[in-house]
Amino acid sequence: MNQYPLIADHGLIGDLQTAALVATDGTLDWFCSPRFDSPSIFASLLDRSRGGHFSTRPLDKAFATKQLYLPDTAILVTRFLTDSGVGELIDFMPTTGESASEQHRLVRMLRCVRGQISFDVEVAPRFDYGRRSHHLTLSGDGAIFDTGETRLALSLIRGDGDDQPGHHATDAGDLRATVNLKQGQMRGAVLETGPDVSPRMMRPAEAQLLLDDTTRFWHGWLSQSTYAGRWREELERSAITLKLLTYAPTGALVAAPTAGLPEQIGGERNWDYRYTWIRDASFSVHTLIRMGFVDEAAAFSRWLRDRITERIESDTGPLNIMYRVDGNPELNEEILTGWEGYRGSYPVRIGNGAAGQLQLDIYGEALDAVYSLDRFGGEIGQPGWLAICELLEWVSDNWNQPEEGIWETRGGRKDFTYGRLMCWVAFDRAIRLATAHGRPAPLARWIAERDAIYNQIMDEGWSTEREAFVQQYGETVLDASLLKMPQVGFVAPDDPMWHSTLHAMDSELVSDSLVYRYDPSASPDGLRGSEGTFSLCTFLYVDALARASRVDEARLTFEKMLTYANHLGLYSEEIAPTGEQIGNFPQAFTHLALIDAAITLNGCLDDAARKSRSPDQARSVPRRPY
Questions:
Q1: Helices 551-562, 535-547: inter-axial angle, 10-degree rounding
Q2: Measuring CA to CA, how many Å separate 235 from each of 231, 244, 514, 570?
Q3: Labelling 224: which of 267, 420, 455, 544 has CA 20 to 30 A away?
Q4: What's the pLDDT tens digit per position in 361-370?
Q5: Which of 372, 466, 360 shows the shortest CA–CA distance to 421?
Q6: Span 42-62, pLDDT tens digits
Q7: Is 26 left (phi over 0), alpha (psi -120 to 50) or beta?
Q8: 74 and 121 share a domain?
Q9: How far apart are CA 164 and CA 182, in angstroms?
């Protein structure tokens, strides 16, 4: 189990339909195709013997590695430093386009930049989570791994004067090869998935063209960013990560590209995050707009509109809490029997049984996303408006009932304050939309429901004992999800009730700037074990501190949190007590919250700087919008 790399010791590459993880030792240990939520081809991250891998490392056992992205791109470079020379492994996936495709390419270029270096290469796929065997066919141009239903072609990148390739088959049906390089030479391989793919010899110049085209794509995409404030590099890396987690054919954003990475090493809190949560993706609309990526926000809004208008028939409401990237609501959960899990964290689950939960907050997040896009010129057509009215009709009849809540606890339904809060948001945003555009709506009922929720939260969501808003009615447990209260406009950031709530969270949920979601020992969630601090909540805390005029504390908390990023600026879901990143990786929710917190904090710092200047100086400096 100690042979597993750290979760943080990975970089992410992708083609906007699927993605792969590459460890700092050059091992590609996670790749699903043709989509994020498809069965795995390489998954040694979850089981080193059953999962499959594509390893590339120097023959010299004594080597050091460094990893970086080419600036402003999703092209990953792993550098190997040995006694005889320095080599580079350049990993990337040429973008596939906006039409769903069965065919995907993953390029692994090997270069010697100093001296000479020899690489040992092993390609060991394990299709369908290791449940389907394959047949290997070698040729002078590469190899084919074929299951009868799925094909993986490996094309060699070779120079004109190369000898015959030295690759060979192993007894397990895998491929091994040695690649010897001198300074200036470049070789490698291209993996291609699809029903009819075949290997072919590729020249280094052709591989270089693929690299150049992919570089231009990412530079062009990132040039749309309108953010020019502090921490620009961190925000742009987060934006690229969010783009990598977006399924281009539909605009859907997956929560993470991985499944089964644990919230506690050796524990059972191991979930499949390769799906689109209404909540997470709805937050992305506001965040992407703030950075200038309006096209991505609009694409997801269209996906969301389709989910709203199709209205599933379910006991838990007209919306599921999550879907597959194509909008399919079927996410049956199963356990990969025999898999040991990351560092012994069993069970390994695929699919997600929480999909059928009742979580009332998703309606507020969905309406807030529609409202955010509307403010930036996104039009709501008549069919969309009618669907929103039908949605609010259901929420009117159902908001006042117990539910499972934002954290998808498996301990039964309860009256969660956050769920009520976001139902308030649903009515508030719908009222604003109706009045702004003169749309027909049962405004009297919506206003009455909105006000009833407000009064109920003030009466039952507030604990006089804790002097704070609490997780659920009748209890005294604190919950970091309520850090959204001032963001959504339910309370003013300077309201004494909010300041009291924030101070209560300071003393109970915050650990040296890192923030827990809640205390599982005080609020049983139906699962064994504990978890780390939740990175989303830490960034929500930064945002809340900044809005509450605790700007210096917000900045220090933010800067501390940046030190927990991995070497590439990526974040998983949680931080363990040891400082290790845990949970699925990288997590969209964390990177969304990072961007939001930075933009809010940047604006507050600018305001503070203006106030410290003389009146004449202050008038001469334009105010930054945020």
A1: 160
A2: 6, 14, 19, 11
A3: 544
A4: 999 999 999 9
A5: 360
A6: 999 999 999 999 999 999 889
A7: left
A8: yes
A9: 17
Which DSSP string corresponds to 534-583? EHHHHHHHHHHHHHTT-HHHHHHHHHHHHTTS-TTS---SEE-TTS-EES
Query: pLDDT tens, 403-426?
Result: 999 998 777 899 999 999 999 999
Helix (H, G, I), strand (E, B) or coil at 141: coil
Closest CA to 317 of 257, 360, 280, 287: 360
Q: What amino acid is encoded at 623 in this protein? A: R
Q: How far apart are CA 582 and CA 587, in angstroms?
A: 10
Compute the distance between CA of residue 262 and CA of residue 27 in angstroms, rounded to an integer.
20
Q: Hey, which residues does 80 pair with through a beta bridge?
A: 65, 87
CA distance 276 to 464: 38
CA distance 248 to 250: 6
Sign of CA dihedral 73, 74, 80, 81: positive
Q: Are residues 247 and 217 in the same domain?
A: no
pTM over 0.90: yes
Same domain, 528 and 588: yes
Q: What is the CATH number of the domain that holds 288?
A: 1.50.10.10
